[in-house]
Amino acid sequence: MNAELQVAWCRRHPKQETTTMTTFADFHARSISDSERNAFWAEQAKLVDWKIAPTEVVDYSNPPFARWFPDGVTNLCHNALDRHLPALQDQPALIAISTETDTERTYTYGELHAEVQRMAAVLQSFGVQKGDRVQIYMPMVAEAVFAMLASVRLGAIHSVVFGGFASGSLASRIDDAQPKVIVSTDAGSRGGRVVAYKPLLDEALQLSSHKPGAVLMVNRGLAPMQMQAGRDHDWAALRALHLDAQVPCTWVQSTDPSYILYTSGTTGKPKGVQRDTGGYTVALASSMDHIFHGKPGDTYFCTSDIGWVVGHSYIIYAPLIAGMATVLYEGLPVRPDAGIWWSIVEKYKVTHMFSAPTAIRVLKKQDPSFLTKYDLSSLQALWLAGEPLDEPTAQWISSAIGVPIVDNYWQTETGWPIMTLCNGVEKQASRFGSPGKAVYGYNVKLIDEATGQELTGANEKGVLAIEGPLPPGCLQTVWGDDERFVNTYWKSIPGRMVYSTFDWGIRDADGYYFILGRTDDVINVAGHRLGTREIEESISGHPAIAEVAVVGVADKLKGQAAMAFAVVRDPRSVETAEQRSKLEAEVMKQVDGQLGAVARPSRVLFVTTLPKTRSGKLLRRALQAVAENRDPGDLTTMEDPGALQQVKELVLQG
Ligand code: AMP
Question: What residue stretches are annotated with the Acetyl-coenzyme A synthetase N-terminal domain (predicted)?
Answer without folding.
Answer: 26-80
